[in-house]
Input
Amino acid sequence: MKCILPALFAAAIVVADVGVAISQDKPNILWIVADDLGPDLGCYGNDLVYTPNLDRLASQGMKFTGMFTSTPVCSVSRSALITGMYPATIDCHQHRKQYKDSLPDGVKPVTEYFREAGYFVTNKGKTDYNFTHDRNEMYDGTDWSQRKEGQPFFAQIQIALPHRPFQRDPEHPIDPDRVKIAPYYPDHKISRKDWALYLETVQQMDKQVGAVLDRLDKEGLSENTIVFFFGDQGRPHVREKQFLYDGGLNTPLIVRWPNKIKPGTSSGRLVSSVDLAPTSLKAAGIEVPAHMHGYDIFGKKAREYVFASRDRMDETVDRIRAVRSDRYKYIRNFYPERPYTQFNAYKKHSYPTLTLMQVLHKRGELTPEQAFFMAPQRPAEELYDLKNDPFEVNNLAGIKETAKIQKRLSNALDDWLSAYDPGQYPEDPSEIEYAQKLMERLFEQEMNKKGLSPDISDEAFLEYWEKYLFGEEKANP
Output
């Protein structure tokens, strides 16, 4: 079996204090996990979206603005989340492997540590872990109502939204003309409509969160339950999900801890998704295993950096690594000869803005910021000043004025790779072949559902999306 690598990356630690006293009581712990969510909530400053339930939760707890997932795709992200460890360390970095392995010796899901401490552990919804597991053995049930009377619970509720396909919200429709489009997307009616539907789906997700919070109140559990709300990764959009820009990694994190966290507070400290397992254990008074890579976000230690990785996404072979400080992001592309937009069946059949950009790129109608992502190759290194360039469109790598910053971040990434990234590269060819054949079949099935040929031209596919988005065709994307 694989060995356990060092649990603490000292270079990434600085001292901070958010002023939260840690209790040794046994509160209930609840994770509410949204699927594919960026920081697009009212409480995070989006004045178009209607999210009263999450806004209320934020007013009762602490909102984190610097929460980043360890990777921008679900199975890999969820593996890191449930173990508190970086994906490559536990051989979970390739998205949905065919031949899944058990976790390394000494590594257990966080559920086991809760169970050993007398907690009833549940999961309602998605697991999608990239290691061998039986959810019937990993969890005691699907709902905290199944526990013994008085038994504390560690529960997860998985909300499938705002993952595509998007869901309209007729109660609070969003006007596409009021949507703010990032400069790396064309300002076009299709991209605007798609983004508006994403925000409406966020609103539908908020309703589900509200039902959970109302249930806690009704059952008298709110005062003794620590609620963590977050996304498993960033937004389901082109250049965001599956990539290491902030759009694919940054997700809300709201924690409500009655009588411990001052209501309505906000923290800008950097948080990684690998921190949530050890934070939850610490809050429950359970000793945090030394091999976990994260640590308590309410303690005095805070991160100088967060790290992220992209490897194979379905059939799309890749390897990208990133390190982010409060101000700067450094990205290393291990396959610079490949385009960002290598074919990916899931993205192609589900993301209308991707086809829009491909068509406009052929016509020469994209701006330089938009055309960068469509180029046939990519730079080996990228560096962004997030304070002055929050959309990450002005690559500063190789510029004399930022050479010292680039070197510092590059060295930090090297240290992290040495400590936490022992993955096999390239991957076993049989895994790649399996993924390619699987996604080829799925792509054909999805296109057939739309009444389209898998060989359809981009121009004809764009016509389909226009009809679908604007109500002239009742296809199911």
The first helix runs from residue 52 to 60. Residues 320-469 form one domain.
